[in-house]
């Protein structure tokens, strides 16, 4: 294998070199650095290890600390299995050594940020393969259904590892085991995620008008760079799954908020259709609230009356706390699994695929 086709032993790579590294999600790239921000944003690459000496990955990250309860957390997958330890960025500069299998085979490495953008970022500085090589990424045409999940803490996976009444700590969050990620795995979807805890469509959970998804949706990552607008051509979904309204729900007893919620939701749908006219849109709600679906259904009916096509709804049942448990006031892993099954069935119905 020639020098141009592999990374020589111990050479530090430019992690934004697309010849070797394939990113998924809304990624801010600067010079030789890449920021993993949003839930389930990830980077993939391939390495060949050695059978005669121990091969290792030396990976360094930088982060902006936001209190211990908000430390960025990442999972690393070698081929189809996660390594045991979660990478916790508890210092401004972090370095991790990850052993590779002792063989001469090619292994796929995936690094996934399992916590959300609003609380932290993981700035990937460099990756070095010790006693091994990094191979060019084998890009292939991806014919899978492309889906973007747009949501709040439920889509972030907040609380999935928590006790029912546990206090807030990001260590209880893991975006890879949410209803959304489980659905993507089950249906083999090409998925991206845009979710922020506490954010709503019109109102944040505390009534703040600024903590809303429509305000930040046009940015690559508003929490890192408020000037960097997202290039929507980077990922063109076949389907948007919107799971918003839970944080608005506590304020929808007021008529004015109801009207503004519905108007904002309709405008957001129109914006998605303007960005991507051929996409389908699925509006879901219900796991943590029971009063929002009628408003969303009304919005969808209005959208259809105005000529918007390929738009659907799905009301999820309120989570069964007594039977399935609860995690830090949020859906348990069991609830996420059940909602995933419901969502899989709906998406299969929309795309006329067997499930």
Structural description of this entry:
- This protein is α+β, with helices and mostly antiparallel strands and 355 residues long.
- The chain folds into 2 domains: 3-135, Sandwich (Jelly Rolls); 146-351, SGNH hydrolase (Rossmann fold), CATH 3.40.50.
- The chain contains 7 helices and 20 strands.
- The strands form 4 sheets. Strands 2, 5, 7, 8, 9, 11 and 13 form a 7-stranded antiparallel beta sheet that branches. Strands 1, 3, 4, 6, 10 and 12 form a 6-stranded antiparallel beta sheet that branches.
- Helix 2 (179-187) crosses helix 7 (333-351) and helix 4 (255-275) crosses helix 5.
- It is globular and about 70 Å long.
- Mean pLDDT is 95; it is low at 1-9.
Task: Please tag this protein with its features.
single chain; 355 residues; alpha+beta; Jelly Rolls; Rossmann fold; 2 domains; seven-stranded antiparallel sheet; six-stranded antiparallel sheet; 7 helices; Acetylxylan esterase; PCW_deacetylase/CE; carboxylic ester hydrolase activity; SGNH_hydro_sf; CE2_N
Q: How big a fraction of the residues is strand?
A: 25-35%
Named CATH architecture of the largest domain: 3-Layer(aba) Sandwich
Head-to-tail CA distance between termini: 43 Å
The helical percent reads: 10-25%
CATH class of the largest domain: Alpha Beta
Cα Rg: 21 Å
Order of helices and strands: EEEEEEEEEEEEEEHHEHEHEHEHEEH
């Amino acid at each position: 294998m020639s020098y141009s086709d592999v990374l020589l032993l111990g050479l530090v790579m430019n992690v934004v070199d697309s010849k070797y590294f394939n990113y998924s999600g809304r990624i801010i790239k600067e010079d030789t650095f890449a920021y993993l921000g949003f839930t389930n944003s990830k980077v993939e690459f391939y390495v060949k290890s050695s059978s005669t000496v121990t091969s290792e990955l030396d990976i360094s990250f930088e982060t902006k600390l936001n209190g211990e309860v908000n430390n960025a957390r990442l999972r690393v997958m070698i081929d189809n299995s996660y390594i045991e330890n979660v990478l916790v960025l508890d210092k401004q500069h972090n370095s991790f050594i990850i052993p590779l299998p002792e063989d001469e085979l090619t292994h796929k490495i995936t690094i996934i940020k399992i916590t959300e953008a609003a609380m932290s970022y993981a700035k990937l500085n460099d990756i070095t393969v010790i006693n091994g090589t990094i191979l060019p990424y084998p890009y292939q045409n991806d014919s899978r259904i492309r889906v973007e999940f747009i949501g709040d803490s439920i889509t972030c996976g907040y609380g999935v590892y928590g006790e029912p009444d546990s206090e807030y700590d990001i260590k209880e969050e893991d975006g890879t085991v949410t209803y959304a990620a489980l659905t993507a795995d089950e249906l083999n979807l090409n998925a991206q995620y845009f979710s922020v805890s506490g954010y709503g469509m019109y109102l944040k959970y505390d009534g703040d008008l600024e903590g809303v998804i429509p305000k930040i949706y046009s940015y690559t990552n508003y929490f890192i760079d408020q000037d960097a607008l997202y290039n929507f051509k980077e990922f063109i979904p076949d389907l948007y799954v919107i799971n918003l309204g839970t944080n608005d729900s506590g304020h929808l007893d007021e008529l004015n908020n109801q009207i503004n919620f519905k108007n904002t939701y309709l405008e957001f749908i129109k914006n998605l259709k303007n960005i991507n006219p051929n996409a389908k849109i699925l509006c879901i709600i219900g796991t943590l609230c029971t009063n929002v679906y009628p408003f969303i259904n009304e919005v969808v009916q209005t959208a259809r009356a105005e000529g918007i096509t390929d738009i659907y709804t799905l009301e999820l049942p309120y989570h069964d706390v007594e039977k399935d448990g609860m995690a830090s006031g949020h859906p348990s892993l069991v609830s996420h699994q059940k909602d995933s099954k419901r969502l899989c069935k709906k998406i299969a119905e929309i795309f006329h695929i067997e499930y």
